[in-house]
Amino acid sequence: MKLSFQIKLFISLMVMFLLLFSVFALYYYLEAGRRVSQEMGVRTRVQADLISAMPELRSAVIQRDLQKIKHVMSNIVPLSDASFIVIGDNKINHLYHSVSQEKVGTPLVGGDNDEVLRGKTVITCRRGGLGISLRSKAPVFDNLGNVVGIVSVGYLKSDIDNITLSKAVNAFIILSLLLVSLFIYSWFFTRSIKKQMFSLEPGEIGLLVRQQKAMLESIFEGVIAIDDQLSVIVVNKAAQLLLGINGTEKALTEKKIHQLIKPVTFFDLPVMLENDTHDEICHFNQRTVIASRVRIWQEDKLQGWVITFRDRQEIESLTARLSQVKCYLENLRIMHHEQLNQTTVISGLLQSGRYQEAINFIQLQSEHAQSVLDFISAHFASPMLCGLLLGKVSRAREKGVELIFDPTSELLQPFHGYRNRN
């Protein structure tokens, strides 16, 4: 099934929007995850530092008093949103675990305790007893500044992912609404484009353009199309030859009409806006032409004009030739009518049995026609003029007028008829 241009354009816009949406969503999710991890890292460090600095906890760790440590942490854990809080000694063994109390006495895992035992607070993402987590470990010092324990505060990666997803969902909802709005806009946009293209496909428009160019170059009249700013849009070859306009199509379409044709009232904007005109005699570039001007409208908005023109001399030449042909046709009609009348008379005489009168009529007509033909042939050398005079004789006879030729009239030089002035 062949899809229309509107559907193709709509699908293309949709694919582009979906790709952009996917790229942006992925980028936003990764960036949100990075920011959440950074925020969680800062939060775990602050909590680890605060807990490790508590005097009660320091004293309990120094004394390795598990009950006291548990009592102190029972007041802290409910106030924290961390996934776990772990207290360890300087031997890297659990003294307290907020999630799994059975881990007390077992070694700390993760391999990130060496820096803490040297007195530094670290933030790492390692796999621990509960899984992969983002955690901060801070040392617990005694009164002499020796490291006697470790405080570890962490968030499981699954919890961080849930936080990231919850933050991204709101953004995705907004993006989805925006995407739906873009879908709706794209549909109406493609409909608008289709309407401006007169519901034609690009291939059909290309064919129309080629047909228009072929038609403009094939017609004999000069054609110039201009826009509403009097800038030239199209000039065909006939117009260029008739007005002596030189230049490429691109160069001509960048000019105003007054730059190609000597300014006349025919191209005055107030006159052009007022009405159209047909067969107006004008002077374009010192040449007399018969021009017509028609406005181009689209949705009640003026788009420009189309000007067509022809050489006046060629029109006059064609008019004269048509008049001459019309005259010849009229003479032939008269001669045919005269012959028909004569034939009717002869037929009537024969049917009535008056044969001698029919013979006399034929002889009379023949002698008269032959005498006229002999006179015209002897006194006039032009066949065209002879034909014209014979036509006049027949027409005079039809109208009952006696046509008499002056015996002294003659034209011994050939007559070639009407000639073009050029």
Write up what this structure looks like.
By secondary structure, the protein is an alpha+beta fold. The protein has helices at 5-52, 55-63, 66-76, 114-117, 157-196, 202-218, 237-243, 249-252, 257-260, 269-274, 312-351, 355-379, 383-398, and strands spanning 84-89, 94-97, 122-128, 131-141, 147-156, 222-227, 232-235, 277-284, 287-298, 301-311. Strand 4 and strand 5 form a beta hairpin. The chain starts with a helix and ends in a 24-residue tail after the last helix. It has 13 helices and 10 strands. Strands 2-1-5-4-3 form a 5-stranded antiparallel β-sheet. Helix content is 55%, strand content 19%. The protein has 3 domains: 7-164, 2-Layer Sandwich (Beta-Lactamase); 205-314, PAS domain (Beta-Lactamase, 2-Layer Sandwich), CATH 3.30.450.20; 354-415, no CATH class. Mean pLDDT is 81; it is low at 418-422. Helix 1 (5-52) packs antiparallel against helix 5 and helix 2 (55-63) runs antiparallel to helix 3. It comes from Tatumella ptyseos. Its EC number is 2.7.13.3. It is a multi-pass membrane protein. It catalyses: ATP + protein L-histidine = ADP + protein N-phospho-L-histidine. One of its GO terms (cellular component) is plasma membrane.
Break the fold down into its secondary structure elements and pairings.
Elements: H1 5-52, H2 55-63, H3 66-76, E1 84-89, E2 94-97, H4 114-117, E3 122-128, E4 131-141, E5 147-156, H5 157-196, H6 202-218, E6 222-227, E7 232-235, H7 237-243, H8 249-252, H9 257-260, H10 269-274, E8 277-284, E9 287-298, E10 301-311, H11 312-351, H12 355-379, H13 383-398
Antiparallel strand pairs: 1-2, 1-5, 3-4, 4-5, 6-7, 6-10, 8-9, 9-10
